[in-house]
What we know:
Oligomer: single chain
Number of strands: 0
Structural class: mainly alpha
Distance between the termini: 31 Å
Amino acid sequence: MNDGPDKARSAWTIIMPWTQGYMAAWNDVRVNMLNKSPLDLYPASFPESAQKAYIANFCEKHSNYQILDAVINLVQIMQKTQ
């Protein structure tokens, strides 16, 4: 991300679709295995731009963690608001 805007843009074209795919699969588990209602992955209170900012901020503050940790943390926060 710190290697310039072109590399950062390329990274985000991978990160956000992967994030949404992970959260969609997690939603499937939530509904089919935990018998809970699905999580709104694009709530008005947490649109994709806010999710992206959250992930970037998490990764900046926790450089020794993996992107998965940021996404799991994001899901936990989204669960609390729905």
